[in-house]
Structures are given as C-alpha cells and as structure tokens.
Amino acid sequence: MKSKAYNLFIFFIAFPCIDIFGLSITLFLFFSHLIFTKYKFSNPFSSLIYSGIFISALISLFSSYFISEVDNPSITNTLLLFARLFYWLSVGLYFEKNFKVEYIYNTSKYFFYGLLFSICTYYFFQFEFELGPIKYSYIFRRNEFVFNFLCSFPFAYHFVTNQKTLRYFKFLFIILCFLAMSFTDGRSGFILFIFQILVIYLITNNFQKKNIFKYFSFAVFLFLIITSFNIKIADLIRPVSERTANLILSEGDGDINYDKSLMVRSLMIDKSVSIIKEYPVAGIGFGNFINYDYDLIELRKYDRLLKAGFRDKYFNTRSTHNTYLEILTEFGIIGGIIFALLFYKGLTIFLNNIFKQKIIYLSLPFITILIYFGFISALTGTITWVLIGISRSKIFISDDKFYNKN
C-alpha cells in the first residue's frame, strides 16, 4: 500500500486544501496510487453494501424528478455528484479490503503531518489563490476544522507515541491539541476531543470490564466532592470553552432561545421530519436537501432568526446539520437501512475488541464521527469513507502480535 501518492493522499485528507479542475486532489492521488502500485481497483459493485448505497442513490434520484418541491441540479452537476459518490465508495471498500497492520505507522505519520499543518494554517495562515486549474484554499469554518481534527488525532497520537524521538513529547503534543481545540470555542467538538483522550487512556492502560465499577465509583466520588465545595463544573470549563460552559448552564449562547446555531439546527430538524413523513421510502434524492423548497412555517418560532433578516430561501439552502437526517431525507428508509448495516460492522468490531486490543483506538475516529454525525453533515467527504473502510477492515480482529506490542 505504501507509495508517495498514498502518503500524499493521507496528508491531504487530513489537510484538505487543493482542488484540481474543481475536484479534490485526493481523488487524483488515490487513483495514482492504484496505478503506481498495481493494486486491483476496488469496484463498489463487488460489495453488496456499497453497491446497495449507490443503487439507492439512483432510486432516490429517479424519484426526485416526480417531486415538485425539488429544484434538481443540472445533468452535469448530477453526474459529477454521482462520480464523487462512486469515488467515495471505492475509497471505503479499498481500505476495508487492503488496510493492514504494517500500514498503520506510515498512515499515522501522514495524519500527524496533516493535523499539524491544519492547526497552523487554521490559526495563522488562512488564505487562498488560484493558478490555472489548481486552487489552493484553506479558509475553513470551525466545524470543518474540528471534524478533520477529530478524524486525525488518534492516528497522529499513535505516530507520536511510536516514533523514537517524538514519544518523549507525547504530553506536549496532547497539550498542543487541547489548546488548538479549546481556542475554536466549539462545544460538541471540544467534548468529543475529551472523549477521545479518555478512551485512548483507558485502552492503552489495560482498562478491563471488571474495572468499570471502580472507575464509575471514582467518578461519582469526584462529582460529590466538586458539588460539596460548591464548585460548578461550568465554571471550571468556562476559561477553556465559554460556549460549552453556557451550554451546561443553558444560558447565553447555550440557550435555544438565544443561540442562532442551535436555532438553525432545530429548524433543519423540523424540515427533515417533514420530508421524511412526506417521502419516507426513497427520499428526495442524493444531495437534494439543499435543493428542496420547503415552506418553513416553523421559522416563526425562532424570533432571533427572523430579526436577523433571514428568510425561507436562505434556510432552504442550509444543510441538515445532521448526517443521519441527511441520509433519511435524501436516501429514504431504503438507504437508511443500508447505511445502518454499513456502520454496524465497524461499530460491533470496536465494541467487541475494545477490551482486547490496544490498537483498537485507531477505530476511535470512526466512533467519534458516528457521534458527531448527530451535529453535522459529513457524509460527502473522502476522510469519512477512509475511516469507514478502516473500521470495517480485518486489522482489529487479527491475532497479530503487533497488538500486544503497541
């Protein structure tokens, strides 16, 4: 699997900044890797699950032409969207079939480089330029940065702890990542990062099922100590992430009646539920949530959104802010069941091996995005499908001695 194209592919999914002819450079790198290493192309139609996703997307597309509320994109854009879907499915299946233990170190290495470049660029060097068909752009919104960060961190941590020199700076690296996540002032991302740190700690320190009661008892004891001294958890968190503290207290921008972000998410839930009720079987078509003209009568419930001057047309072009709702609205129940089966294998592999294999924390990015899917729309991205493929691979259910050494 190792090749310069593969190394760059991993780097640029962690640090997505270059498009060529409007397509991510990762697409060209992926197929270059297949050509240079003479790997057999992973045809999605050779897999029942992956082919099922593509076919359900075609069914939903066909049904969308009979839905008056959908403003279908041009034929060119539709073909481009399905070409990308085919590419993402190919990537997922490739990593599921070919990812092996001996590739972990090199993969983690370029996730580490990509993560460092993302952090530095996000905070200090955001800019963009075009040079013919090549476009460089790393002007990312917070959610995009946080998502890629959470996808990359466990791999980057693995590289740091297994590299001869960097292992001595493990805690410095964790502090750097903690600060980088804290300064985003995000809520769900910050909480999920803490979740990753805790899970990695438990896995790498031989956490066993029999210790669950001990850890739970300690957590309860700590909570009682904190509350008995009138130390509010929110006050402890506030210096690091004010928005998270407000969310705990349901005040300020943590109050649904004040926070524009929470209002938009609630509004998109209203729209999604209406679509699911109206078109439950096949959905409204892959990629069509933002093309669905819905009468957002619920908008009147959110005064702050109305006062900001936004109207139906603007909000009808917003994403679902929830990947699961995106799947159900665009693919319908048919696609929803297939995606559930896709996620189920990776989830069960993680749960069945979490107390057995230390290296299982490399499946943690997949577990993290399953949780994060409840807050963002992230189905259409190469890094998502890489993680799905790795989570379904055989490396976590192998008896290789590598697990005991790492």
Question: Any overview of this molecule?
Answer:
It is a single chain. The chain is 61% helix and 3% strand. It is mainly α and 406 residues long. It folds into two domains: 1-41 and 108-183, no CATH class; 44-98 and 257-406, no CATH class. It has a four-stranded antiparallel beta sheet with strand order 2-1-4-3. The relative contact order is 0.13. Mean pLDDT is 81; it is low at 399-406.
Summarize the structure.
This protein is mainly alpha-helical and about 400 residues long. Helices cover about 60% and strands about 5% of the residues.
Key terms:
single chain, mainly alpha, 2 domains, four-stranded antiparallel beta sheet, 3% strand
Write the layout of secondary structure elements.
Elements lengths: L3 H11 L3 E3 L2 E2 H13 L10 H17 L10 H24 L5 H21 L3 E4 L2 E4 L4 H21 L7 H13 L5 H17 L7 H17 L4 H5 L4 H8 L10 H19 L24 H5 L4 H4 L7 H31 L10 H9 L9 H10 L10 H4 L1
Antiparallel strand pairs: 1-2, 1-4, 3-4
Helix pairs in contact: 1-2, 1-5, 3-4, 3-15, 4-17, 5-6, 6-7, 6-8, 6-16, 8-16, 12-15, 15-16, 15-17
Strand content: under 5%
Rg over CA atoms: 22 Å
Structural class: mainly alpha
Low-confidence stretches: 399-406
Return the domain count: 2
